[in-house]
Amino acid sequence: MTSLQEATTVTKSMGAAEFKAKCLAILDEVQATGQSITITKRGKPVATVSAVAEQTTSVPLFGMMKGTLKILGDIESPIDPDWEAKWEAKWDERLRDDGLSR
Asked: The pTM is what?
């Protein structure tokens, strides 16, 4: 519906007592027709009942990329098997340069 059509659509209105008496039937009517109903109290509008737009089913975020990635090679082993020894040697060198020891 365009904004021009929405502006020209006439909304139905009814008193609060009538709405209270026929609430469930009115809700069914609003859902079926999509037409809004204004509820009045002593002639003054206090609420509007309107249909909710249909919700589209969304794709769940968890697992949405399943099957889109391909793992090549070994991702668990360290890239360099000697990395820990090299790191220890570098750390010892820094400690020696600073005059500290382990």
From this structure: 0.45
